[in-house]
């Protein structure tokens, strides 16, 4: 497809619906899970519950996200994974009790092994459908953010922020997405490169992209920045609740609203500035967000909490969306786009967030049983400092060829 060829409005609409449901499913339960677990008396398992996603990213990326995508149609993988996952989502609330907390974590792991590969698969379907017009991807991906926002608003308005029923809401949409995926564009798996079976399974072509020094630095920094990122996903909801804010789901949806605003500006910003400035601004925003959480409170300082949440648009879009486009531009000429997107998911949502969830769990364990906002402050300084250090590392080591990453 020529880079100047217009993109069908129908195709854009179909892919936008895909992204909307893809992230509605995740956003319906992920945002307030920490608060739900604290409410039902299994708060001590929050770190374990938020570690299963990263573990699933590692396992799923190899078994389904990258290896299986070499031999099966990405859209058929989406059909199977979301239908089976939807059934598991309906079972999860029955195990969210003090007596069955461990079983809940294990079943959540099984579900996430199915779900996490679909993040990379959805990106792959969209990017391959657009061909060289990758500048259209942020517009479509914005509907994923919209889906996350709508999920949070529904959960908040329905009074389900602290209820296990969040999984049932996600389950309904997961089943719908599984059926809808049958209609998605039939993009082809990455063409085999004539390598051995072992090379195919371990996706050596994708990992070979890291011979490109700039891409290697990007993967390293993406992994590191995902460590403090995990602490936001796991502990933002109980922190906001401790500040006395009742509509936790709706409040955290502010972050996705800002993400939506910046998402639409990404094509212009990416073409105008290239990848490095966007990635750097994203990392600096993470440091600033956590610093704001570290000084915010439920009284006169509540503005810092709202501003920290609102920074999510810069934090996520400027790093992860720009990073997905950058990965596509590096991988597409080699014919390993699906593998590379899966590899990015493995390192960020996998390795990085696994480390972050466990480190966050150690810090959370130091909080008193009925932690106040003041008790939370010291916890947030750790990710703030870590994000600032990673931003400095990236600034002084990442030196890309700007023409290499232009959309």
UniProtKB/TrEMBL annotation:
It is found in: Cell membrane. GO terms for molecular function: cytidine transmembrane transporter activity; uridine transmembrane transporter activity. The keyword Transport applies. The chain crosses the membrane at residues 7-29, 41-64, 76-96, 102-127, 139-160, 166-187, 215-236, 248-270, 277-296, 302-326, 346-367, 379-398. Residues 207-407 form the Major facilitator superfamily (MFS) profile domain. Its main location: membrane. Pfam families: Nuc_H_symport. It is a multi-pass membrane protein. PANTHER family: BLL5896 PROTEIN, NUCLEOSIDE PERMEASE NUPG-RELATED. This is Nucleoside transporter. It comes from Sphingomonas trueperi.
């Amino acid at each position: 497809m020529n880079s100047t060829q217009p993109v069908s409005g129908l195709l854009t609409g179909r892919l936008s619906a895909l992204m909307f449901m893809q992230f509605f499913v995740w956003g319906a339960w992920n945002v307030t899970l920490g608060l739900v677990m604290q409410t039902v008396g299994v708060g001590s398992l929050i770190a374990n519950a938020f570690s299963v996603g990263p573990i699933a990213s590692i396992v799923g990326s190899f078994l389904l996200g990258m290896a299986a995508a070499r031999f099966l149609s990405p859209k058929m993988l989406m059909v199977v994974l979301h239908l089976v996952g939807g059934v598991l989502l309906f079972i999860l609330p029955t195990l969210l009790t003090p007596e069955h907390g461990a079983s809940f974590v294990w079943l959540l792991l099984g579900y996430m092994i199915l779900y996490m590969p679909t993040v990379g698969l959805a990106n792959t379907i969209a990017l391959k459908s657009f061909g060289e017009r990758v500048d259209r991807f942020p517009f479509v991906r914005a509907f994923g953010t919209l889906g996350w926002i709508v999920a949070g608003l529904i959960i908040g308005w329905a009074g389900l922020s602290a209820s296990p029923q969040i999984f049932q809401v996600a389950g309904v949409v997961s089943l719908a997405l599984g059926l809808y995926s049958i209609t998605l564009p039939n993009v082809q798996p990455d063409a085999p490169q004539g390598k051995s079976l072992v090379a195919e399974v371990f996706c050596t072509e994708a990992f070979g992209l890291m011979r490109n020094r700039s891409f290697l630095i990007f993967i390293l920094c993406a992994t590191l920045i995902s460590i403090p990122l995990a602490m936001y996903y796991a502990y933002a909801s109980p922190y906001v609740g401790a500040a006395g804010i009742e509509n936790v789901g709706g409040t955290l949806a502010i972050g996705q609203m800002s993400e939506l605003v910046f998402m639409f500006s990404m094509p212009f910003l990416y073409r105008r500035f290239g990848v490095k400035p966007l990635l750097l601004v994203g990392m600096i925003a993470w440091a600033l967000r956590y610093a704001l959480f570290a000084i915010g409170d439920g009284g006169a300082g509540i503005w810092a909490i709202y501003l920290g949440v609102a920074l999510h648009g810069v934090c996520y879009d400027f790093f992860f969306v720009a990073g997905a486009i950058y990965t596509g531009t590096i991988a597409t000429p080699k014919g390993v786009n699906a593998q590379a997107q899966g590899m990015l998911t493995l390192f960020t949502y996998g390795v990085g967030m696994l480390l972050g969830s466990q480190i966050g769990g150690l810090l959370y364990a130091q909080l008193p049983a009925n932690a106040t906002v003041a008790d939370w402050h010291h916890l947030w300084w750790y990710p703030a400092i870590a994000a600032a250090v990673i931003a400095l590392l990236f600034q002084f080591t990442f030196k890309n060829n700007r023409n290499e990453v232009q959309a």
